[in-house]
Amino acid sequence: MKHIFPFCALLFSFLWANNLQVSNISLGNLNSSSGFVMVEFDIRWENSWRISTGPANWDAAWVFIKFSKNSGAWEHASLNYVDGTAANDGHIQAAGATLTTPADGKGIFVYRDAVGNGSFSAADIQLRWNYALDGVNLADLLDIQVHAVEMVYVPQGAFSVGDGSSSSAFYAYPSTTDPYAISSENAITVGTNTGDLNYASNFFSTHGDQLGPIPNAFPKGFGAFYCMKYEATHDQWVAFFNTLDATQKSLHDLTDIDHKNTNAVVQRNTVLWSGTGDATTATPDRPVGYMHPRDALAYLDWAALRPMTEFEFEKACRGPQTPVSGEFAWGNANLGNDFFAIFDDGLPTENVFDFTPGDGNANWALVSTWGDGPLRAGIFAASVSTKNRVETGATYYGIMEMSGNLEEFVITPGRPEGRAFTGNHGDGLLAANGAANESSWPAQTGWAGNGHRGGSYKSTNALFFTMSGRFFPARASFTSSALNSPEWGVRGIRTAP
Question: Is the pLDDT of residue 341 over 70?
């Protein structure tokens, strides 16, 4: 829709994520002398919570703004920051909502301001956009997009990695059955002195080089962070892809020879692109596979997020709880292996049934009756009648599908390229060719410094998606630099403000 405003013309769009809607977007309260304008919108999502006991955490939406001047390239909007609080940053909170801005001003976290659960909505949120800082003039013709991604807050605190039994799990030397405790963000010694971090390796070094130290700047998981509640979906990928120019799209075309190699549905991936114009998908809530490092890192950079480390993966799953031998993301070693039936396939209401009550639920090879491919994000939470952690397949903090569905992209401390990672966030902008442009992030042309955890729908052995199992966290010497797999997804995080 078009609005006549001191800007020449303004076009607004709103975007969906899984069970999340941004609507009623408008601009107001222009301050041309200070170069800012307020971006106003409503937001709502389902299955929200804030609790004061147990994990003592909440879910949130990471909201960021993209704009295009005079039909040019899409850019990332700069939000005002003073101290992170809405009042001092110049943002206006809706009733029932808290807004927190990170220092880089690349977006804002929206979450409940009090204990509660269920559907959450907030109307008339206003964010101060410093448009002059972004080079916008009042005569420019603008397109505006407001994007939102569901996140989960993981509080600061000590935790352990390794469970004493899973393949190549981290442990405290010399006993492979002793988990390694992480109680700060300080550097970690890897070695063979008592108490050092260690792990087994193999011929292909897919577990790591067993070298260190792991520097202070490498994110250990002790500090607080936000993690995407679900794996990135087709809808989120298409929203990203459609803001790219032709050159950038060619690098990230999921239908090319380096990805699906077809425009047909492959492994339940319905992202289509003709080579011109916009991409589409028929299954917006389904997690997106075929994420080569160049694709995963570009998406995270564009969204002003960052990749998670192996340590953060285990923290997000286990929290402060004592490790359990062979445990999955839901905290025990009980895994459902009954075949599921599926209905409303491909729809937002997609569900499964015929699973065994009381077992942990995950999408893996031994339960599939629908053919290979991921199920929609959050499917078990929507399907089971008993909404506990085990049956929904949730982590300690309420993050979904960390075991099974798609493999989780991680940065490993088991390679020098991974150990160089400093946890810096994406800036919302990509290089001219479409690649991520963050200096400390691992290489995007291959696998040096990164890999996967958590297993996928194709895993025939449950050991692949145990919480501490480390089968392919360091793929550099094992995986072709050009290879893409339908099993590979992406899930971003952000250090908490």
Answer: yes
pTM surpassing 0.85? yes
CA distances from 287 to 168, 377, 401 (A): 28, 6, 10
**Whether residue 19 has pLDDT greater than 50:** yes
In sequence order, what are the beta bridge partners of 493? 227, 306
Query: Average pLDDT for residues 422-448, to the nearest whole number?
Result: 91
- Tell me the backbone φ, ψ of residue 124, rounded to 5 degrees: 60, 35
